Structure formats: structure tokens, C-alpha cells
Task: structure prediction
Amino acid sequence: MIGAFISIITFLLLGLFGITWAPFAILVALLATMALTPLYGWALERLAYRPLRHSPRLAALITAIGMSIFLQNYVQLVQGARIKPLQSLVTGGIEIMQRGDFVVTLGYMQILIVVLTVVLMAAFTLLIQRTALGRAQRACEQDLKMAALVGVDVDRTIAATFVMGAALASVAGLIFLLYYGVVDFFIGFNAGIKAFTAAVLGGIGSLPGAMLGGLLIGLIEAFWSAYFSVEYKDVAAFTVLVMVLIFRPTGLLGKPDIEKV
Amino acid sequence: MAGARGGSRNDPAPDGTGALFREAGLAGLLVFGLAAALVGVRVQDGAASAIAPLAFRFDDAFTAAAAAALGRLGVALLRAGLAAPVLAGGTAVAFAVALAQVFFPAHPLLLALLFDTAMPNWLVALFAGFLALAAGWRLRHAPLAIVSETAAREAAMDRIGAEVQRWARYAGPLIFLLALALPLMPFADRRLVDVAILVVTYIMLGWGLNVVVGLAGLLDLGYVAFYAIGAYAYALLAKYVGLSFWLCLPFAGIMAAFAGLLLGFPVLRLRGDYLAIVTLGFGEMIRIILLNWYQFTGGPNGVSGVPRPSFFGLPFTESPPEGGHSFHTFVGLFWPLSISPTAKFS
Result:
């Protein structure tokens, strides 16, 4: 949501200076939002999560919900509650197939989204798998205390993770804004629930699992909307989630959870 | 900055004023970065957007940055043991901001210096006053015995908690009596009683949540769905079957309990995040169904005309039905009209 708002502000500012050439505008907005949104991620970690590092899990979760409500209300206060429209920057597409009156087109916008996603996914996979920071992150995921003992700066690693997460989320916000052309302060709620659902469906802590979960949620919703009813697509997605979790309590690709006593 | 001031507040305070000012400056820079885009620029909507798509108020972003830098400086000074300047500065800022806000809320100079809306200004004044108070406390009680700030804070919180529990034994019955007497108070009007009823409703919700999350340790994020089920059970039973409140009361409870059973069977195998997301999903499902099944539930319009509770056929209304009694005329509850709360209710 914050990423989308910073993007729309950047686009409108560029528009004031008469710059509407789409590739340049998108690049500037991408840089601006990836520079400014992570500040929120960092500040959030510093203010709301670090003091609770050693608290029970419930405290951190409640804090997360509270911060999300706080940020939504903050944006609603400073930017207003109405939806903000942006005229589409990228239009047109490639015609793939035509039969009779039905034309199948692939929009340039869709191509841009897929390319941007694939590039970012590759970059972040490399970052997690190959760099020192990624190694530190994986160490912190497994055991905070042990990671600290072997010389990982836990605080800095977690802060860097929040910054990276915020940067990725801001790109998602930019894409949302570009694709749908509207943004309001509440767009993050649904996306957050769906992201969490996808992660749980695939199994928490598994990157391919998260991708598979996201794909499944998207396909279920699309097919359900097409064949049954649009209103109940979320119900269908959650029902499938419950069904899967009954038979595989740790998600599709998740590791069996060993209770640590 | 993240690494330098890493995990603990127990580190010895950074020495030298240079470090203090650097810390304050960094905080100011950070807040300016946070506020520059979202506070400094506002995306206009509606009719205003046709004239200019953006409105600028960078002065507020600068104000936020300055407030953050000053506040951080105060906290850092306090931590370094320099309480006297914090006491002086905090008092000065608190009084200056509060006086400016009270006497010249629309002066152009103050609009430029302070925030444009009152609320954040009051927050600034409040925080400055709080810092000054903390500094004054530090000056009176020399902080020699404090080994670690975290441990001291936790000990203080424990002490406060014990104190609250001791007082609660006496305050509880007193508050209960006050709650009973509230509708009869001369200052009680419709709004106050409504808010008080809402408070009691939330307390009841909190009790229920405490059973699930607190006592059973199951993180149920969809708990509020049962609140909806209970409310809709009463409303729909009354609307379609014509049952009265007293019959619906146990039915609503039973229905919510069955919904809990329905949810509980599949999800109790799950732990942690998995349980949380499934209960969250259950809550969302109930909400979506209630909103979209508009033939039955009325959708976003809700159910209207739900009959109010009555007492053995005596309605709780102000004016009794034609030729009958309402509860208060039957029991003989009357107040002189001048202080009658019901006069203000209507």
C-alpha cells in the first residue's frame, strides 16, 4: 500500500514536469518506491519488532496486526480514504490468436509484470542462496541464538530482511497500481491474507512451496469465479486451504514440524 | 546505526555530544524520509484533482523530522545522564506547543512551524511533557541502583501489575455498582450509555477470546466470526421464525457452539501459523457469506426490524402500548421528568 502510494505520487510528480514517457516514468517510480518504502520496513522492525524479539510468538503477531492497522490509518489520514486513480501508462499488446470475433491478446503490461517478477525472483533467489547476507538470513531462520554465537549480527540481518521485504512489497504495490490503475489505503489487507494463505498452503519456509501455493490460490479463484460465482471465490480458496491442511497439516511442501520443547 | 546500537539498551551511553547529535540527526533524517512522500505530498481526489493532482505540505514533513530529531536528542541525553537540559527543554517545548495550539491555532507562522492539524501537535506536546517528567524523576532519584534498564523496567512493571491486582479486589465491585448506576446518573445520555454497552460487549468478547487463546493456547484469529454468528442467529431467527429474544438467546449460543465444533474438528490437528491462518480464513468465509447471501441475510444492508427483548410480554419502551403497560410503568420505575434519563434518551 505504501509502495503503491509512493509510486502514484512519483508518477503524478513526473506528470507535473511533463514527463510521461512510460519506460522512464516506471523506472523512476521503481527506484523511488524501492528507496523510500524500505525506510518504513526498517523503522517498523526497529520500533515494533526488535523490542519483542524474545517475546512469545503471539506478541509479535498481535504487534504485526497492530502495525498494519496503524499504517492503514496513517495513510488514510494523510492521503484520504477515497480511491486514487491513475491513467494507464502501458497500453496495447500483442495479438496472439484470433478465431471469429474472439481475439486473444497479451498485454504489454502483463508481459512487463511477468518479466519484472521473474527478474526479481531470480535476483532474490541468488541473494538468499549465494551471498553472505543470505547465508546469515538462513542461519537466523534456523536458530537465532546459535546464529549469534557463530558471529552473525542478528539485529542487522533481521533489519536487512525487513528492508528487502519492504522493497519487494513496494514493487508489488507499483505493479498493482500500474495494472489496476487505482490505489487506496486498504489494498494491502486482501493481498496480505492471500500471501499468508499461499505461504501456508505451500508450507511455511519453503520458497517453491510459496510459489506453488500462490499459483494454486490464483487458479482456484480464477476457475471458481469463471464456473461458479465471483462472490464466493475467497470462500473456495479458504475451503481448499482447509482441505489440504486436514490431510497435510504442514502444507504441500512443508517439512513436518517437530515440536520443540 | 542498526548495528552500532544493536540489541541492547544496556550498552554504556555513547560518549561525547557529537554522538548524541549524530543520533538525533539520523532520527530526523529517517523521519523526513518516511514523511517526505506520504505526508509532504497528498494525492488529491474528487473535484480538487481536476485543478491540481497534488497538494504539497512539505512544512509538515520538516516539522515531523524536527520533532523526531528533538525527541531522539532528549531520549539520548536522558540515557547519557544529562537530565537537567531535558527537563528544561521538554518543559519549554511542551508549554510552547500547547500554548501556541490553544491561543494561535491559525497563525501563519505557527502553521509553518507546527503541524497543520491539532492532533499531532498535542502528541508532540504530550511527548515533550513526558520527557520532562522522566527527566525530573531522574533528577530526584539518582539512577545509581539501576543495573540494567530493561531489568529495572520489568521490575517496575511487575510492581505496577501487583499493585493493580491488589486494587482490583476493591475496585471491581465498586465499578460494578457504578456500571449498574450509570443509566440513572443525571449526566447519562444516550451516547454515553451506548458507549458503555459497547464496552461491556467488548469485555464479553475478550472473555471468550481468553478461553480460546489464553487458556487453551490456540491462536484463533477468526474468533470474531462467532460474534457474527450469534448476532445473525438472533436476527434471522427472529425475522424468519418469529422467536422472541429469550428463546433466541440459547439458540444463538448453541448455533455459535456448533460453528465452533464444525471449525474445531478439522483444525485442531494444526499448530502455530497453520492454525492461525485457517481460523483467519474461517472468519473471512463467514464474513463473505454473510455479505453475499443477500437473499437471506440482507447482505451489506443487514437485518433490520429485529424485535427488541421484552419482559414476559412487557416491552422495554418509553411509552407503553395502547391500553397496556411497558416494563417501567408496570414495575413503577418513575423519575421526576427534569432528571429522567429517558427524557434525554428520546
Q: What stands out?
A: Chain A has a mean pLDDT of 85. The first helix of chain A runs from residue 2 to 16. Residues 186-256 of chain A form one domain.
